[in-house]
Amino acid sequence: MAEVLARLEGVSRTYQKGKEKVEVLHNLDLQIPTGDFVAIMGPSGSGKTTLLNLLGGLDRPTSGTIHVGGAELTAMSNSQLSHWRSTNIGFIFQFYNLLPVLTAQKNVELPLLLTSFSSKERAERAAIALDIVGLADRARHYPRELSGGQEQRVAIARAIVSDPSLLLCDEPTGDLDRETADEILKLMQILNREHGKTIVMVTHDAQAAQYANRTLHCDKGTLEAREAA
Amino acid sequence: MKYFGLIWHNIWRKKIRTSLTILSILVAFLLFALLSALGYAFKYGEESADAERLIVIDKVSLINLLPIAYQNQIASIAGVHSATHATWFGGYYQDPKNQFGQFPVDPHEYFAMYPEFKMPEEQFDAWVKNRTGAVVGKDIADAFGWQVGDRIPIQSTIWTAKSGEKTWEFDIEGIFANEEPRGNTSMLLFHYDYFDEARAFGQGLVGWYIVRVDAGADPVQVQNAIDAEFENSRNQTESAPEAQFAAAFAKQYGNIALIVSLVLGAVFFTLLLVSGNTMSQSVRERISELAVLKTLGFSDRAVLGIVLSESVLIMLMGGLLGVGIGVIAVRGVAASAGAFLPGFHFSPTAMAMSLLLMVGAGVVAGIFPALNAMRLSIIDALARA
Ligand SMILES: Nc1ncnc2c1ncn2[C@@H]1O[C@H](COP(=O)(O)OP(=O)(O)OP(=O)(O)O)[C@@H](O)[C@H]1O
Ligand SMILES: [Mg+2]
After folding, report:
1. Sequence ranges of the domains in chain B
2. Is the CB of A25 under 6 A from ligand 1?
3. Given A55, A114, A153, B210, which residue has the most CB atoms within 10 angstroms?
4. Which of B63, B33, B6 is nearest to B264 (CA)?
């Protein structure tokens, strides 16, 4: 069995909604091996986004521990987490979340502002990332001048530019037509197979899940993530 | 700073809104430059005052005259180095709006009292010899294009000559400069002897005394001794350091400093509301973008710094433009009308003050939006988007 990149042990996450407590994740154990490409499916409200947030250090579990790549997230301070995210995690969102005031190139350079690279090095690395996603010729375009699929490619370039080991994708093709979605999914497959990225992808689309190595199902809002048949 | 590009592009996210905000900042700082130059002009007399000079006026009112006989009495008081006098002539040249100071004085005494006034010796000698001669300061000579040898009429609003004439004619025998580069030279000086003889009334009376205190003597003691000397005379006196006299003189025009502060206070209060509103709108409409920055690993403090820098940068752009235009305007006014408003000048202190004000106002306008951005919860903000 491959080395484990992410390990959740007895993780629960409870939200306080007014007086009511909603337990979104209950005593969850999960291991994600390095190099895996996991799809997570499940009904709305079942806690998929919550799980991604926990894996990416954006949220903290109510109880349990989370290790990612040797770091114990549950033992880190907020500012440690924020620094850790910048080098270890790439996030890809359903609505791309590019900054509209920056060009594609500058959007991709954003995470590198947190490094000690010179502006020349930043530009070079961003150019390489844009080349990997096939958008080298759109570097100077602003997000509003790009199609949805192109915007998502820029977002992927931004997610991989600081060479993180884990990519967390929340419905990355949820806003795209079939054909464009397939292109994006193929790109993710390449990142997984050729660039060795471990990917956790939340999706509602069974066809999208086909691109992954395996699919986990989140059920009933609480409790378990189990292997698909 | 590597965040500059990000900050700069964020500022111009809404071009019209930002331009209008910058324009209002510009106007506020333009006003600041003009009003502080005006305030400086009124404080100018105070700042250029000599600590060893006292002014002695009538206790009841500045416009009451004092007997010339007081001069010898003052001069004999312990601690007094020398004393001379001057009188307000209250005249104008050609047009009532061309007002400036004219004073009948004793040439030797007066120039000894004000060593900062400099003129060629031969011009001074020529003036001493000519009873109807006068000397003028460089500023006023430049303003009216006067030259040595000109004969000029001055219309007095106070003094009638024995001939019944209110227009007095003087031969310009010399032009003096002030050793201090920005010192006031907007005045005309002429012979007291001639004035006293020619005026229709008020013989033997002068406007005020100027007293130089002995080096080492305590000016306050001398001041008290002078006033004590005339306590039982018909005209009691009030002595004060030159600076205090200048301040009291400026107050005749109202409390300029207070008016300036009130106007500026109102302007800057409005300015803070305008730019504070711009900043909070700008933060509100990009909650999700700020959350994305934090997701990418930008720290809370970095996000705070980015928003604050935007606010300060907007303030600096508007402020520097406003002060820049203000300085040009002040120079223009000083060049064309400086003779009537000596000290109208944008001082280095005011410049430093305006920079402080820009940064301070930028921080105040941006701090609450910036704190909101800093405290933003990533998951809430992303869920909302
Ligand atoms: N910050 C929060 N405060 C309160 N409740 C929350 C919060 N975030 C999520 N929840 C609740 O937790 C549950 C799981 O939310 P989550 O976003 O993880 O679901 P999801 O599986 O991603 O759903 P979807 O498919 O609609 O994106 C939902 O019932 C949601 O209302
Ligand atoms: Mg979700």
Report:
1. 4-44+255-384, 50-253
2. no
3. A153
4. B33
